[in-house]
C-alpha cells in the first residue's frame, strides 16, 4: 500500500479484512501492519465482528488412531466445502475429547491424554494453528465435573469454569489464561442436587448450561448461568412448559440468542420437538422465552434417536443421530428439510461444534500450563 496514504486510513482498511489467512499474510507488509494485527485491541475487535466466516467443526476417532477433525464452511456451499484444519502438537495430545465448546474462534477440548496419563484441557485456534494446554486433575469418566468456556467481553481473557457437582456443597473453580491459575469461587445456587448437561452456550459474555433438579420428582429443567465479567453464577427463569413439559430438553444458540429444544416423543412417531428462543418483545425490558416453531421428523429405516445438535448460521437445524443399532457408536450429522420432514444425511460422522475465525492466541506459544 502506498506510503503516501496516512496510516490511520490504512488501519481502517485493514480492520475491514475478515479472513484470518489474509491478515496473517499482511503482517509481512510492514512493521506497522504487524504491530497493529498483533495488538490486543485489534484482536479483540476482530473476534466480535458478526460477519466473521463461520465453520462447523466435526471430530471423530478412528479406532487405535488419534482423533481427526473436519471443518465445514457454513455458507451457500454447505456442506461441500470441507477441509482438515491444522492440528497443533498440544491439541493432538487429547486422545479422546469428551467435550467440545467454542467462543470467539477458540475451541475448548477436554479429554484424556495418553502422553500425560491424565486429563488435559486445550484451547485451540484452528484458524491460526495456535493452542494452549492446561493440565487438569486426574481424568476419569463420570467424575461429576462440568466445564464452561468463554472469553470475557471486558478483558478478552479466555476463561474456564469447572463445577464439581457430585460433592456437597458444589465446588466451582475459575481459570483465566492471563493468570495461568485456578481460583475457587462460590456458587450460591439454591438446589440440593443438580445434574448438568455438558453442552454449553455463550451469549453476550454469559455461559449457560441446562441442568435438571434431581431432588424433585420428574426432575424439572433449569438453566444455570455464569457471567464471565462478574464471575458470578445465576439462573435463567423458565416458564412451566419448558421446565416440566418435555421428555428431554437441551440448549443451543440460534441467531445469537439462547434457545431451548424440547422433545415430545415417547413411543409415538414422528418425533416432535419444539424450539424456544429467549428474546425481548413488545418493548418488554425483561427477556422471556417464546416458542418459535415445531419440528416433526419422519424417521427413516434404521435411523434412531434424533437430536438437534445446533443451528447453522442461517438458522437451519442440524441433527445428529445413530444410523443403526448394530452396536456402532458412529454419530451421523444431517440437515432438516421442512418440506419433507426428513433429515438428509451428508455422510459426515462425529461430534460437532461451531466456531468463527479469530486471532486469539496469536501472541501465545504452543505450550502446556502445569
Describe the structure.
This protein is mostly beta strands and 370 residues long. The chain is globular. The longest helix is centred in the first third of the chain and has 9 residues. The strands form 6 sheets. A 5-stranded mixed beta sheet has the order 4-5-6-7-25. A 4-stranded antiparallel beta sheet has the order 3-2-1-24, with no helix packed on it. Strands 8-9-10-11 form a 4-stranded antiparallel beta sheet, with no helix packed on it. It starts with 6 loop residues before the first helix and ends with a strand. The mean pLDDT is 84.
Give a quick set of tags describing it.
single chain, 370 residues, mainly beta, four-stranded antiparallel β-sheet
Explain the layout of strands and helices.
Blueprint lengths: L6 H9 L4 H7 L4 H8 L1 H8 L6 E8 L5 E7 L8 E2 L5 H4 L1 E10 L2 E8 L4 E8 L4 E6 L9 E7 L6 E7 L6 E6 L4 E5 L8 E10 L2 E8 L7 E7 L4 E5 L3 H5 L3 E7 L2 E7 L7 E9 L8 E10 L6 E8 L5 E6 L9 E6 L4 E8 L1 E6 L10 E3 L1
Parallel strand pairs: 7-25
Antiparallel strand pairs: 1-2, 1-24, 2-3, 4-5, 5-6, 6-7, 8-9, 9-10, 10-11, 12-13, 13-14, 14-15, 16-17, 17-18, 18-19, 20-21, 21-22, 22-23
